[in-house]
């Protein structure tokens, strides 16, 4: 049986291997305070783009990330764990620029390390990642494109590891249930499904959503599914 390791577990193995070899890596923990003002200046400059998200994200992709990614990579190579805002901001910018693979790999590591989000944010890192990926999933599904592997990857983490707001968690279960009921136009309809097993799976997901957060708005669809199951069972 093949054991699938999380990015955090893979990272720990790499660090253990590196520590067995002689090397000289600069300890950036001691020098972190020196570069933080520069990081803050870059963050402040990004605000000058205002609502022009395309130009802002282009600047992140072409200027900011190439500048700060090496420092985050060095932090990961050190094998030490300490609060690192550079690492966290790189994760945020990776998601902003659509680099979901690396963003999720690093986010899993940062969450395992209990890295905190920037001051003034109203949510922890798991909540930020869950909401960001959910927005991507909704948009991608609406455009008729595949939402995998990102949907299943994050949904599994939400179900088993991450603690996020109940309303946000319920939305993930709701989406998963409705996604099973899509008709040829992508609209969720119980009458579009002839498979009772799929209908029961959707009902279970929507029921879990309602149990997590009663105001999630799935009661009518659950009733529609039950009616469809009864009709197919006759």
Automatic annotation (TrEMBL):
UniProt GO MF annotations: DNA binding; endonuclease activity
Domain of life: Bacteria
Name used for this protein in its record: Terminase
Source organism per UniProt: Gilliamella apicola
InterPro entries xrefs: Phage_P2_GpM
């Amino acid at each position: 049986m093949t054991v699938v390791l999380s990015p955090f577990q893979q990272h720990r193995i790499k660090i253990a291997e590196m520590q067995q070899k002689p090397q000289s890596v600069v300890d950036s923990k001691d020098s972190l305070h020196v570069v933080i003002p520069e990081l803050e200046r870059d963050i402040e400059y990004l605000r000058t783009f205002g609502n022009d998200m395309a130009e802002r994200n282009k600047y992140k992709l072409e200027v900011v990330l190439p500048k700060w990614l090496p420092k985050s990579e060095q932090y990961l190579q050190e094998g030490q764990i300490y609060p690192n805002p550079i690492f966290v901001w790189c994760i945020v910018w990776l998601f902003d620029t659509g680099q979901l693979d690396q963003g999720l790999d690093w986010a899993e590591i940062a969450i395992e390390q209990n890295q905190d989000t920037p001051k003034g944010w109203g949510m922890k890192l798991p909540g930020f990642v869950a909401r960001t990926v959910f927005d991507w999933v909704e948009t991608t599904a609406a455009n008729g494109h595949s939402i995998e592997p990102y949907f299943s990857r994050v949904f599994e983490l939400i179900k088993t590891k991450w603690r996020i707001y109940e309303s946000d968690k319920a939305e993930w279960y709701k989406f998963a249930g409705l996604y099973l009921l899509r008709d040829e136009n992508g609209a969720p309809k119980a009458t579009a499904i002839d498979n009772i097993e799929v209908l029961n799976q959707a009902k279970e997901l929507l029921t879990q959503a309602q149990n997590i957060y009663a105001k999630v708005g799935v009661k009518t669809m659950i009733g529609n599914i039950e009616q469809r199951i009864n009709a197919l069972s006759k």
